[in-house]
Amino acid sequence: SISPEWEKPEGVPxxxxxxxxxxxxxxxxxxxxxxxxxxxxxGATLTSETTAAAAGATGVxxxxxxxxxxxxxxxxxxxxxxxxxxxxxxxxLPRIYRVNWFRTDENGKFLWPGFGENIRVLEWIIKRCSGGxxxxxxPLGNMPDPNQFxxxxxxxxxxxxxxxxxxxxxxxxxxxxxxxxxFAKFGDRMPAEIIEEKRALGKRLR
Length: 206
Known about the structure:
The chain is α+β, with helices and mostly antiparallel strands. It is about 35% helix and about 10% strand. Strands 1-5-2 form a 3-stranded mixed sheet, with helices on both faces. Helix 1 runs antiparallel to helix 2 (about 75-90), helix 1 crosses helix 7 (about 190-205) and helix 6 (about 170-185) packs antiparallel against helix 7 (about 190-205). The longest helix has 16 residues, at about 170-185. The radius of gyration is 17 Å and the shape is globular. The termini are far apart.
């Protein structure tokens, strides 16, 4: 489903940008960036686990900034800079979100039912963009209150809902160290703003 106006030459208003990842652990169901720069950081540090559809071993953590690695024909650090610069040029910036439908429990079972239920996450995002939904501020960003997210129709166990939004502090500290190694590959071309966001996350996790 797509708007019939998507190719209007004068442009189409965008309220939100969603970065999706596939992680069985660590990454919560949905997270809203604090601001544009933080949102670019969320996109720049996007990771997913390989599946049977990809060549090689499954379950390997793969870096895929903005889900664009196969399509970006130039240095990714310059790509990050482009995103940051756009934040200075756009009057009404879209909100940025990271979503992860694939978190699992200790038995490998998906915690989130997925498919049609994904609309519940999209509904929260739409309401956030229009000022109609509350959020809880966390070290990772703004997230729904697990106690208010399920209206009873999901029939999810409370512990599953809490796990979908749980934050593994030690796991994220390890992720930050991995991000530092990734950023170092770009040398001086890596935008300082993204490195600042990494450091800010480390401070929020203390």
